[in-house]
Design brief:
This protein has three domains: 21-69 and 80-119, no CATH class; 133-225; 246-358, secretion proteins EscU (name from scop), CATH 3.40.1690. The chain contains 14 helices and four strands. The protein has helices at residues 16-24, 32-74, 79-116, 122-125, 129-132, 134-141, 144-170, 172-176, 183-224, 228-239, 242-263, 303-314, 323-332, 344-366; strands spanning 269-272, 277-282, 295-301, 319-321.
């Protein structure tokens, strides 16, 4: 694994497979600070927009409950009646609270999805003896990483407390004047002070969460980095050993070469340049393929070209020297393809020479 190698050796970026394995184990760049900050902002917005109706709903429920106490105290309640009262009280209290809590949970889910996407990680929740081992847990609890995390948490509390305290200190004169107010204005003014302190605290939390977001990304990428040996090993496992693949390609080229050489004796003519290029053409003017264009059945350069020429000489296939035509056929036509139309005239001249040569040979044999 990449995390077992020294940090100075982990110089390569993580491969897609490495990232996928990390996601399966639940190792993602998730900033819990961003998640908490978003949910706190949603809660503050919910209180600002729906806090009044929620308080009114609970106030009405409490007042009605006190009004019904004298009547309920003189009656004997059956179990069914008690259940009905509890359901009614639950609807009155929990439904408004549900409308307040549901958007907060939705914001948390959206923010979490925005950071890491949706992916089930069964390996992250699978049974692992190390996760429930008391010894391992004790080591994690007092590890350097845990100490740093605890220190950072304490530092965050101090920073947020200082920010809120500074804002509250700025409102000190306003707070001192609250004692001379009646209960209604007093609560309104107190709510304004609390709201300002809460906004300051939220801004501090947002700043901390932004820093944590980029830090989590940085540390996640750093932890996923790999050594060059790990990258090479993964390449071997996923795509095969490069040496083995090279050997397979070599064998494929040799097999293709043998098939190509087997078609040279069947060729009509071999066009050469004469030392570096050789292209074998096949043209059937009377058989099943009559009427089609000439086809390249073999081609090669240097040593392969010499082998084609030697095999053609052994099997009495005519050799025709034409440097421009040999180069053009080799560069433009693959094995098994017909020649292009702009080379028809040049190839027709070669075939005419072949047929004249074959005609002379037949006359010499008949004589």
């Amino acid at each position: 694994m990449a995390d077992q190698a020294p940090k100075d050796e982990r110089t390569e970026d993580a491969t897609p497979r490495r990232r996928e394995e990390a996601r399966e184990k639940g190792q993602v760049a998730l900033s819990s600070e961003v998640l908490v900050a978003a949910m706190l902002v949603a809660a503050f917005a919910g209180l600002a927009l729906g806090g009044g109706p929620l308080a009114c709903s609970w106030g009405v429920m409490i007042v009605d409950s006190f009004r019904e106490l004298p009547a309920l105290g003189t009656d004997s309640l059956e179990l069914v009646d008690l259940g009905a009262l509890l359901v009614e009280a639950g609807n009155a209290a929990l439904l408004p609270l549900g409308f307040f809590v549901a958007p907060i949970l939705a914001v948390g889910l959206l923010v979490g999805f925005g950071q890491v996407g949706f992916r089930l990680a069964p390996k992250a929740v699978s049974a692992d003896p190390e996760k429930i081992s008391p010894i391992k847990g004790f080591k994690r609890l007092f590890s350097a990483k845990s100490v740093v995390k605890s220190g950072l948490a304490l530092l965050k509390i101090i920073v947020i407390g200082c920010v809120v305290g500074a804002v509250a200190g700025g409102q000190l004169g306003h707070i001192l004047n609250l004692s001379d107010m009646e209960i209604g204005p007093f609560l309104a003014a107190l709510g304004t002070v609390v709201a300002r302190c809460a906004i300051a605290g939220l801004l501090a939390i947002a700043a901390i969460s932004a820093i944590d977001f980029f830090w989590q990304r940085h540390t996640h990428e750093r932890d996923l980095r790999m050594t060059r040996k790990e990258v090479k090993d993964e390449l071997k496992n996923t795509e095969g050993d490069p040496h083995l693949k090279g050997r397979i390609r070599q064998l494929q080229r040799e097999m293709a070469g043998r098939r190509m050489m087997a078609d040279v004796p069947k060729a009509t003519v071999v066009v050469t340049n004469p030392t570096h290029y050789a292209v074998a053409l096949s043209y059937d003017r009377e058989g099943e393929a009559a009427g089609t264009s000439p086809v390249v059945v073999a081609k090669g350069v240097d040593q392969v070209a010499q082998r084609i020429k030697a095999l053609a000489s052994e099997t009495d296939v005519p050799l025709f020297e034409d440097v421009p035509l040999a180069r053009a056929l080799h560069a433009r036509v693959e094995i098994g393809e017909e020649i292009p139309e702009d080379l028809y005239q040049a190839v027709a001249g070669v075939l005419a020479w072949v047929y004249r040569l074959q005609g002379t040979s037949m006359k010499a044999l008949s004589a």
